[in-house]
């Protein structure tokens, strides 16, 4: 068998590098002394100065001034609940799109949506989609379901013990629910679904979390549930773990796509042919033709769901509003649909894993609280509305990118707004 030429060349390059003796020495273990950096949570002017002194070998005073700026250092303690080993804050450009008209069950009105990103052309694209959607009467949104899950795992000697354990859990569900909910004012355990794989049992513990995203909330509640099981269950277990890597926490999974792991939202708008032509610079037919090809590509490549770029809008929205940006890994799953409605174009997104909160996490930090205030959705009572805004924003991005590629404008827009800025 003959290897392709590009593989042969790649192997040759690797071989040449590893034949270099100094390079081989670089890869050997080192026993050079080092000073351990222990995690410290309580930020202060003194602790920040100490860390920057440590960084002097690589970072300059200008670097310190950029991260530990006067506004940040006026009250470094305000960041203590959100980070350890604090040295400053990063400033990201924040743009707005809108007004984005949303006719939702929870979000209702015209919103200016903040988006934090370093990617030129992103805000312009989403703004164009928002303009087209608003000009067409706005986006209809509905929160369909919610339930943040944690999936502890329990290990037994065999299948029989695993089955007996599930039987015990079912009998004790009320007591276990009480143990979990005793840890939180706002969380409710709504279901416990067992999943058996021979001698290992996963318990899919699903919670509502009020207006918070609820990641920490459900972890603490589930730990209390597990400790109650460990203390009272008569079935001998070899081990239990707070998370069995079954929940899809911060990763794309079929479970998340089918059952959801946060707030499931559907958003839709019907764009008139006139809006598509005059606002988006293309035609309904061209968008549907490209959408058919893009849908085929998503299936052939094995995407979980079928969509263009949810992650772009979600990441910018999450960072601007104090959400856990790592949750984009699971939130950016879902389905985009575009269908003809007579001469017009029906566009929708359904997103089963939107993990957002209007309270808790990073939402109380100064810049992030400001982002939520721009939306008018800071604080209690706004979690569901925030999820609907997130889905509507993603729909704007889907409309704009499909139109741009269908019309052949995608590359030109990035050249003009990004490379030639």
TrEMBL record:
Pfam families for this protein: HMG-CoA_red
Entries under SUPFAM superfamilies matching the protein: NAD-binding domain of HMG-CoA reductase, Substrate-binding domain of HMG-CoA reductase
Leading EC class: oxidoreductase
Family according to the record: Belongs to the HMG-CoA reductase family.
Keyword Metal-binding: no
EC numbers, comma separated: 1.1.1.34
Species the sequence originates in: Celeribacter ethanolicus
CDD domains on file: HMG-CoA_reductase_classI
Name of this chain's protein: hydroxymethylglutaryl-CoA reductase (NADPH)
């Amino acid at each position: 068998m003959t290897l392709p030429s590009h593989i042969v060349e790649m192997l040759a390059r690797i071989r040449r590098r590893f034949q270099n003796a100094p390079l081989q020495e670089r890869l050997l273990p080192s026993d050079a002394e080092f000073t351990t950096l222990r995690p410290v949570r309580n930020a202060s002017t003194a602790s920040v100065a100490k860390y920057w002194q440590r960084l002097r070998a690589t970072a300059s005073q200008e670097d310190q001034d950029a991260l530990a700026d006067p506004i940040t250092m006026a009250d470094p303690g305000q960041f203590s609940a959100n980070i350890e080993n604090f040295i400053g804050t990063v400033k990201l450009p924040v743009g707005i799109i809108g007004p984005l008209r949303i006719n939702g069950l929870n979000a209702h009105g015209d919103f200016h949506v903040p988006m934090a990103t370093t990617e030129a052309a992103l805000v312009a694209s989403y703004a164009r989609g928002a303009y087209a959607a608003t000009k067409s009467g706005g986006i209809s949104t509905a929160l369909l379901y919610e339930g943040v899950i944690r999936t502890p795992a329990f290990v037994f000697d065999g299948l029989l013990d695993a089955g007996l354990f599930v039987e015990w859990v079912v009998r004790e569900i009320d007591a276990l629910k009480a143990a979990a909910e005793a840890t939180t004012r706002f969380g409710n355990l709504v279901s416990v679904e067992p999943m058996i794989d021979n001698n290992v049992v996963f318990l899919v513990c699903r919670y509502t979390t009020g207006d918070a995203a609820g990641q920490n909330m459900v972890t603490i509640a589930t730990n209390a549930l597990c400790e109650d099981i460990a203390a009272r269950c008569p079935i001998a277990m070899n081990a239990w773990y707070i998370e069995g890597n079954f929940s899809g926490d911060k990763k794309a999974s079929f479970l998340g796509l089918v059952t959801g792991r946060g707030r499931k939202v559907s958003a839709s708008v019907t764009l008139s042919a006139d809006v598509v032509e005059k606002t988006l610079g293309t035609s309904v037919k061209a968008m549907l033709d490209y959408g058919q090809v893009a849908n085929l590509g998503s299936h052939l490549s094995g995407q979980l769901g079928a969509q263009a770029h949810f992650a772009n809008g979600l990441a910018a929205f999450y960072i601007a509003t104090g959400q856990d940006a790592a949750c984009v890994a699971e939130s950016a799953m879902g389905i985009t649909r575009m269908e003809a409605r007579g001469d017009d174009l029906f566009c929708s997104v359904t997103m089963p894993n939107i993990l957002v909160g209007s309270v808790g996490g990073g939402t109380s930090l100064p810049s992030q609280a400001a982002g939520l205030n721009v939306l008018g959705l800071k604080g209690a009572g706004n979690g569901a509305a925030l999820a609907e805004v997130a889905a509507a924003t993603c729909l704007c991005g889907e409309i704009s990118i499909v139109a741009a590629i269908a019309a052949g404008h995608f590359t030109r827009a990035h050249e003009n707004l990004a490379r030639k800025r």
